[in-house]
């Protein structure tokens, strides 16, 4: 079987168009920068309806040319994907193989965009995102990796298991046919093999799931901690504000990498420090939900009591599932060494045990991000609590927690949503950094940081093993930043 080229037979038609459009676009962008300083703009023409016509000078002409070239480039990429998905690897090379393997992702993206655009006027801030080009691009990049992670976890798009080692495929370049392929085996390593003869494409797909299952939830927990502490610190002020702010600044002053090194050391883990931190930090969603519901429905006990029983019951059960391990909340015994135990959720009800490495990473990310979220929430609350509608709520006799959670917090949602997206990006980079240094996650983990670290050892000879996961990390973080920009742009219009 012959090795695959990047675009196969499809490249004879689309490759010249792609490279011509990319080259002309690069030239036009350079000309735009030069003309912005050197050439005056043409006079703007005012139409009869009062609108202003496009710039007729050299800068305006080059700007329009850049826009058309960009559209042509995007159309060419979409043609690669659409035709490649039909032809597959035999007709469209590596691009066709990737496009066909990712077919569930393309279908999910098309359906998501179609439904979202059709009902965008009814979807609040999320719907307004589709009025922003930057936001739509960022959202597309983020959801692409979300769907890749989800479908990859279901083994719908991977070509090989990420830990499978195939003889003769060590450091093979992208498109290398599989040696000794049997019936049912995928015939190629689409993105090549790494230094242990594992499929790079499948490891990237599985690595996306490692990011998706940790970064958003760790960021959400950090926001629960930051909001729960930031609102009362700003609203009450005084010694409470000083105490919490001092602790937050103390954590922010501590070197992050050193913290991770400390948490993964056997001596620290043996005494249960990560588990203690988990028990403390994971309780904040329960506290937040309890205060939120009680402050909203305290005048309706017939509704509040059953609602709190159901919600808090589910949250407490989830809490016990996350912190219990083998029927214990704490178990410091190691082999024959003496230790102590504290009973937790019975093993029959504990359907999920968080691996120790992931627990350390999760707790560390929440611990590091919480002080920054606290400072953001505190700053917003200090400003909003002086507004007239807060004074009106105080005049009505509303309680402090009602004012904090139902008057101040909703009016701070715009900046917090934007920061949430950005902080997921920071967390993604942090997870890549931890994987690169081998902290927390197991050595055979397919996360992008570990994959990049494995590939960098032969980077000058076989760059594909490190470049592809690095580009994956780059595109996800870029998408989160663009999504945050789009949300910020639309939230400012409210």
UniProtKB/TrEMBL annotation:
Residues spanning the signal sequence: none
Keywords: Cell membrane, Membrane, Transmembrane, Transmembrane helix, Transport
GO CC terms in record: plasma membrane
Localization of this protein: Cell membrane
ABC transmembrane type-1 domain ranges (all copies): 208-484
Regions that span the bilayer: 17-38, 68-88, 94-115, 136-158, 214-236, 243-264, 276-293, 305-322, 357-377, 420-441, 461-484
Alphabetized Gene3D superfamilies for the sequence: MetI-like (1.10.3720.10)
Membrane topology note: Multi-pass membrane protein
Entry's Gene Ontology BP terms: peptide transport; protein transport; transmembrane transport
Record InterPro entries: BP-dependent_transpt_permease, MetI-like, MetI-like_sf
Main location: membrane
Family: Belongs to the binding-protein-dependent transport system permease family.
Name of the protein in its database record: ABC transporter permease
Source species of the chain: Aliishimia ponticola
């Amino acid at each position: 079987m012959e090795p695959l080229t990047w675009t196969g037979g499809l490249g004879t038609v689309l490759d010249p168009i792609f490279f011509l459009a990319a080259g002309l676009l690069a030239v036009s962008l350079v000309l735009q920068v030069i003309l912005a300083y050197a050439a005056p703009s043409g006079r703007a023409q005012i139409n009869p309806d009062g609108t202003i016509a496009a710039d007729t000078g050299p800068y305006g002409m080059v700007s329009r040319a850049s826009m058309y070239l960009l559209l042509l480039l995007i159309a060419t990429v979409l043609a690669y994907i659409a035709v490649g998905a039909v032809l597959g690897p035999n007709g469209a090379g590596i691009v066709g193989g990737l496009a066909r393997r990712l077919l569930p992702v393309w279908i999910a993206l098309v359906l998501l965009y179609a439904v979202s655009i059709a009902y965008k006027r009814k979807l609040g801030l999320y719907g307004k995102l589709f009025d922003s080009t930057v936001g739509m691009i960022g959202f597309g990049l983020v959801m692409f990796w979300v769907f890749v992670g989800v479908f990859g976890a279901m083994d719908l798009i991977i070509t090989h298991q990420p830990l499978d080692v195939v003889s003769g495929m060590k450091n093979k370049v992208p498109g290398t046919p599989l040696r000794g392929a049997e019936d049912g085996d995928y015939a190629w390593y689409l993105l090549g093999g790494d230094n242990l003869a594992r499929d790079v494409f499948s490891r990237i797909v599985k690595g996306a799931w490692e990011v998706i299952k940790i970064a958003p939830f760790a960021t959400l927990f950090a926001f629960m901690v930051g909001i729960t502490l930031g609102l009362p610190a700003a609203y009450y002020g005084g010694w409470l504000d000083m105490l919490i702010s001092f602790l937050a600044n103390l954590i922010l002053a501590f070197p992050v990498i050193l913290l991770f090194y400390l948490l993964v050391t056997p001596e620290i883990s043996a005494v249960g420090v990560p588990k203690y931190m988990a028990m403390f930090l994971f309780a904040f969603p329960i506290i937040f939900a309890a205060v939120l519901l009680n402050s909203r429905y305290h005048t309706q006990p017939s509704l509040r009591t059953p609602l709190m029983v159901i919600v808090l019951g589910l949250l407490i059960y989830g809490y016990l599932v996350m912190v219990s391990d083998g029927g214990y909340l704490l178990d410091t015994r190691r082999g024959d060494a003496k230790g102590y135990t504290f009973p937790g959720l019975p093993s029959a009800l504990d359907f999920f045990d968080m691996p120790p490495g992931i627990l350390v990473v999760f707790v560390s990310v929440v611990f590091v991000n919480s002080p920054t979220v606290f400072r953001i929430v505190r700053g917003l609350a200090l400003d909003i609590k002086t507004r007239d509608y807060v004074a009106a709520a105080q005049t009505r006799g509303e309680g402090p927690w009602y004012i904090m959670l139902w008057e101040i917090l909703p009016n701070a949602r715009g900046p917090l949503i934007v920061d949430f997206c950005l902080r997921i990006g920071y967390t993604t980079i942090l997870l890549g950094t931890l994987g690169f240094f081998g902290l927390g996650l197991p050595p055979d983990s397919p996360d992008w940081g570990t994959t990049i670290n494995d590939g960098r050892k032969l980077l000058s000879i076989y760059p594909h093993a490190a470049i592809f996961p690095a580009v994956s990390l780059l595109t996800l973080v870029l998408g989160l930043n663009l999504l945050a920009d789009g949300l910020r742009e639309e939230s400012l219009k409210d």
